[in-house]
Predict the structure.
Amino acid sequence: MKIMRSQIRSFLSITALVAASNSIAQNDLLPLEEAEAYSGITESRLIFRENCAVCHGENLEGATQGTPLREDLVHGESMDEIIASITDGYETTGMPSWRDIFAPVEIVGLAMYILETRNNVGYATSNYDAPLEIPNHVFDTEHHDFRLETVVKDLEPLPFSIAPLPDGRILVTEKTHGVRIISADGKKSELVADTPTAYDDIYRLESRIDIERGMGWLFDIDLHPNYEENGWVYLYHSDRCEGCNQISREEERAVSMNRLVRGRLEGERWVDQEVIWQAPIEDYFFAGDVGAGGRVAFDNRGHVFFSLGLKCGGQGGGIQDLATPCGKIHRVNDDGSIPQDNPYYGGEDVYESIYTYGHRSPQGLEYDVINEELWGSEHGPRGGDEINRLLPGENYGWPLYSLGLHYDGTRVNGRDLGIPFELADIQQPVVDLTPSPAVSSFIISDSKQFPNWNGDFIVGSLKLRTLFRVDIENNRFVEREILADGLGRIRDVEQGFDGSIYLLIEHGAGGQILKLIPEE
């Protein structure tokens, strides 16, 4: 029978009350609001259990009168194929049509739930504390076999970025602590002195999934393309202050905004710092850094790109507003000046550094030097993680449109925000990652150690804890291969000067850096 709406509302009300009694938020976000925000996931789960589990099992394991859904699906395993199976049914095999019972958006949510469960990417945990044991076997993949070697394993639990140095050392940012240098033999330094401050007052919302929150973190660290000549290291961080603008004074809370600086290393000290890009203080806001983006990339023409996610207030988070810096990819010259060929150079009431806009939570940013193209990965809502080719001046949709759903089960439809748009004006992802693996950083490989991956995207994921190889040719998705799974949350993927490929793992017991070792 069909589950009643009143049952769902009752269940969600109870959930919200329990969540409210366990609040640990320090930024006045009510757990009641957070529980309601995830009501679509709850509804999909309850619909499945009340209507589908009798045949397919509560965990998709199958039942006496039905087939398991964790095995190969006869009628297709894509999102569209599963939606069609639920909608139309297969009368000859006893599968009823649900077209007249569930609304279309409920069917989409149900299909999403099946895909999420099949791929073990539910929303109960973000896998910070899932068992972590680095396999010592050889990974057998289509083009290259490799094993994993641990470079260092006692980092702080929340590292963000690594930057291999020419001499074999590795720079690493720990979001809530600072910058360290890892020696070639795996020993970590003390925190590098005099870098921008990293704040460690993390909080979590018990009513929501296991995501860390805070303000004033360190993000990406990257070397200037001519590092061996000029020694410049670029550090992207969340600049935090209190009482520094009107909203901070009114709310009596700290505010922050991403900022790009560069400096040099003198032993274990940060020197010669210069600010490359900083938003006006009045645009600083008190959104947490969990969706702040924070990646940096260089092209071969003297430009530096950087991503900035959900950190502004206003309608839709200001993402569609060119007068705010948030939800954008920015481009400046490597000294911080604005390139005259930027798409909004010389415009009034706009950030002239904007290169693209309409981004929700950017996670990876890389420049393909061979094809002279910029690429990015980002988190969608429920479903809808993306890999995008980033074209100057283009709109990538958020919060007007997404292939994913809002967590409350509704479609992403920006018309509710009163922002006019045409779907034809929104750039669609080259790669749609549904269900969401929580895509993270990536490289476009040109490693001589793995020559058959040349031009392929080596992509990490957080919640799914999997490393992928993604083949994109002529700006079209060709295939995706799992290279390794069951690892920790892969926060960063980087390639060293000698072609070595490194993974940065975050985990509740301590972060790690792993190295892929090719097998002859």
